[in-house]
């Protein structure tokens, strides 16, 4: 049953598309500077995600997929929530375990939701 406090959760397909776009961008940047170093790619992905979600409420992948990261009040995530969300996202396990409302545990812990904006 959807949580009545949070906006509707975006579909899994759009969220995976956004993740793939963001990871591809981080991989290209990493390859250009560090030569396909997986830890560098993860670090670039994390920094990019934290900065963009914390300031714009969406990464490049989110924008491409028509998504945004919001709070219960449908406001922007802000830097602290974005940091919690990003750290847990990079640990992978919280991102692949979902709550009953369809949000990943990284979103549940941060008090955020990925929702469609178009």
From TrEMBL:
Q: Say where the protein is mainly found.
A: membrane
- Boundaries of each RDD domain copy? 9-110
Q: Which InterPro entries match?
A: RDD
Q: Which UniProt keywords apply?
A: Membrane, Transmembrane, Transmembrane helix
- How is it placed in the membrane, per its record? Multi-pass membrane protein
Transmembrane stretches in the record are 16-36, 42-70, 82-100
- Localization terms from the record: Membrane
Q: Name one Pfam family in it.
A: RDD
Which top-level group of life is the source organism from? Bacteria
Protein name as annotated: RDD family protein
């Amino acid at each position: 049953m959807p949580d009545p406090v949070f906006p509707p959760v975006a579909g899994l397909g759009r969220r995976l598309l956004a993740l793939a776009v963001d990871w591809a961008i981080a991989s290209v940047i990493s390859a250009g500077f560090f030569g396909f170093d997986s830890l560098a790619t993860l670090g670039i992905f994390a920094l990019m995600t934290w900065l963009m979600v914390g300031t714009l409420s969406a990464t490049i992948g989110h924008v491409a997929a028509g998504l945004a990261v919001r709070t219960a009040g449908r406001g922007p995530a802000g830097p602290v929530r974005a940091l919690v969300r990003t750290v847990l996202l990079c640990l992978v396990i919280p991102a692949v375990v979902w709550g009953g409302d369809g949000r990943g545990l990284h979103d549940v812990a941060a008090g955020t939701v990925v929702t469609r904006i178009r």
